[in-house]
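Go through this pair.

…
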Amino acid sequence: MVTPLSFSREQTPPVATLHRVFSRLDVGAFAAVPRTWVQANLGDRAETIAIDAKELTGSHSGALPGVPLVAT
């Protein structure tokens, strides 16, 4: 079973652990991965492509589900 962020367990790591991991990322190297993929697949174009993804969490009671949003 695959859960959000591709964790293989039912429960994701604590927020503090995720904070430590993400705060130690090399931002330049991390940003280079999608940039390299886009350039390889779309080439060098003059226009800018911006992609933003978020998920609304819904209600705590579960009465309203979360909603994934993607904007380009």
Remarks:
- Residues 7 and 13 are 9 Å apart (CA to CA).
- Residues 4-71 form one domain.
